[in-house]
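Propose amino acids for all 613 sites.
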């Protein structure tokens, strides 16, 4: 057997270079690049292996391990889970910085390969710099913190172990049902150790994303339930995008006369003016979608894990006899809440379900009602987005940018108030043009994620929506976008703190406390000059005070040759309403009358909550 002698790190890199994937008939590398911050644990062996192959596997320098791993997650989302970025770190804090990003990928079912340095397998020099010692179990290192937040985990303690581990890690990341992050812990001595690897391990291989079909008995059960529906509703989740099932879902809905609503991850499945589209559903949703959900007798959830923000903490489906059909490639998601499960790829399963339905079509009056509800919702948004306030509102800012954006512009957002405002107010002009990370609702994703999205879509403008809180939490990748030439337009909406959580605090009876800057303990109430800060990182930046000024600035940003930051102060108390109820833990006992009233309202709303069904 022909062998080649390589270090473990060199073998990992050579194996990655040999992996390809077929996308729309074209073969391309599975691994698009590496985000790396090097230190002891990965600089001596892994960096040495990566440096010679920059023309085939480029390494990009980030400025925080969490943010570069978040960029890798956003790249996977923008690529519809078909290509993967790698993030690597040193031992210790560099490693644990990536745990949050792993959780983001896990919650959103997105692939990323995390390779972290680890302590020495031989343990002769324990404790090494940055080692966290476990008194009861010497095998435990910070690598173990990744176990709850990865789909595949391994610590390589012998060079030959990668022969089994790497293919398994990739199989998980490319599996539509099990997709998620994979973690490889690489002890310093093992990374540098040589082994005679079989040359066949490095042969080029082309992978495909499988399309598993559903069990016909499940299809027939779902078809029987749907064929009896008078008020059916389709929920489009993120899995519709990942399956490439957008056209299949729309055709299914059109043939059957069924209105379509979207989850946050499913946004931009249908265009805003599609006659089948009834709006976003749930807590950050529309009155139109939620009203239909209230009355629907059969709900077909396609490619969604049915998070509480989608279901209004399981209160939006109010027909006591409603039936849930959950069509999902992941068995875990398909079988939730006593659903009629159809386990299979969305595109294949929709075709099979359509064939089993025969001539069924929902009553025309139901789709007419959806159109009327959506028209009412759009009239509300139009009125809300009219710039007639002294301080601009989120809704006004969103509409102004929406009107000026090109159809293919790609929007990136995450935590805070902006997801709700964008999910409700954004009119999608093209399919798969909207990434709002709301599976883990991770502050800091916005700037880093936009960097990764731009790598995936170099020919499209990427617009990142950032609150002042998220900006302060993680902003260094503005510099990364300038440094690497990946232009992003950043819209920084400054409302003086964590205003959306202040809203939740007040709406549940609490006193304003520690969320807005002025309600937090302080000696000097200063507002950060975000424009100057962004300029210091090489971006072009300006602060505007009105919607008209924002429109002019956005035009300049579109024409700019590098990343552009537009800062605008927005009202901290103005919000788009229309979403569903959301359960939070309001105290049963409180000295505040407002809290007691809010608790009573909670108990009243819980009567609409479905107890696991």
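Proposal:
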């Amino acid at each position: 057997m022909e062998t080649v002698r390589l270090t473990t790190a060199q073998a990992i890199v050579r194996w990655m270079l040999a992996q390809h994937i077929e996308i729309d008939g074209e073969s391309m590398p599975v691994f698009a690049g590496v985000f790396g911050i090097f230190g002891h644990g990965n600089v001596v062996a892994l960096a040495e292996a990566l440096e010679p192959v920059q023309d085939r596997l480029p390494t990009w320098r980030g400025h925080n391990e969490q943010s570069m791993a978040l960029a890798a997650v956003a790249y996977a989302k923008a690529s519809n889970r078909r290509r993967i970025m790698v993030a690597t770190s040193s031992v210790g804090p560099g490693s644990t910085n990536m745990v949050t990003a792993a959780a983001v990928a896990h919650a959103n079912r997105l692939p990323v390969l995390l390779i972290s340095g680890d302590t020495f397998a031989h343990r002769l020099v324990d404790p090494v710099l940055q080692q966290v010692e476990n008194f009861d179990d010497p095998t435990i290192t910070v690598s173990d913190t990744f176990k709850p937040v990865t789909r595949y985990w391994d610590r390589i303690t012998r060079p030959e172990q990668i022969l089994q581990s790497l293919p398994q890690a990739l199989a998980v990341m490319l599996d539509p049902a099990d997709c998620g992050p994979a973690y490889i812990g690489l002890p310093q001595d093992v990374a540098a150790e040589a082994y005679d690897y079989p040359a066949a391990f490095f042969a080029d291989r082309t992978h495909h994303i499988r399309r598993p079909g559903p069990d016909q008995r499940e299809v027939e059960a779902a078809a029987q339930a749907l064929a009896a529906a008078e008020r059916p509703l389709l929920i489009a989740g993120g899995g519709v995008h990942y399956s490439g099932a957008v056209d299949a879902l729309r055709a299914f809905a059109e043939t059957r006369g069924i209105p379509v609503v979207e989850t946050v991850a499913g946004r931009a499945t249908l265009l805003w003016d599609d006659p089948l589209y009834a709006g976003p559903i749930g807590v950050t949703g529309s009155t139109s979608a939620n009203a239909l959900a209230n009355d629907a007798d059969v709900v077909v959830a396609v490619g969604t894990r049915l998070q509480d923000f989608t279901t209004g903490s399981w209160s939006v489906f109010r027909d006591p006899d409603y039936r849930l059909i959950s069509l999902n490639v992941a068995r875990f998601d398909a079988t939730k809440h006593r659903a009629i499960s159809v386990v299979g790829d969305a595109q294949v399963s929709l075709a099979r379900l359509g064939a089993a339905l025969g001539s069924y079509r929902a009553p025309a009056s139901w789709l007419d009602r959806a159109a009327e509800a959506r028209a009412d919702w759009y009239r509300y948004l139009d009125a809300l987005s009219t710039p007639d306030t002294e301080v601009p509102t989120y809704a006004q800012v969103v509409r102004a940018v929406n009107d000026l954006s090109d159809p293919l512009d790609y929007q990136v957002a995450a935590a805070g108030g902006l997801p709700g405002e964008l999910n409700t107010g954004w009119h999608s002009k093209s399919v798969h043009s909207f990434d709002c990370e709301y599976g883990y609702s991770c502050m800091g994703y916005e700037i880093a994620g936009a960097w990764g999205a731009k790598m995936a879509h170099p020919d499209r403008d990427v617009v990142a929506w950032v609150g002042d809180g998220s900006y302060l939490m993680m902003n260094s990748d503005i510099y990364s976008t300038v440094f690497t030439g990946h232009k992003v337009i950043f819209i920084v909406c400054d409302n003086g703190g964590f205003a959306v959580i202040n809203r939740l605090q007040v709406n549940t009876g609490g006193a304003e406390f520690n969320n807005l800057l002025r309600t937090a303990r302080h000696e000097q109430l200063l507002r950060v000059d975000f424009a100057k800060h962004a300029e210091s990182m090489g971006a072009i930046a300006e602060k505007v005070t009105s919607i008209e000024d924002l429109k002019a600035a956005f035009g300049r940003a579109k024409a700019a040759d590098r990343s552009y930051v537009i800062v605008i102060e927005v009202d901290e108390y103005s919000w788009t309403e229309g979403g569903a109820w959301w359960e939070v833990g309001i105290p049963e006992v409180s000295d505040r009358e407002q809290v007691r009233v809010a608790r009573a309202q909670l108990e009243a709303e819980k009567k609409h909550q479905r107890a696991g069904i």
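The chain has 24 helices and 23 strands. The chain has a mean pLDDT of 97.
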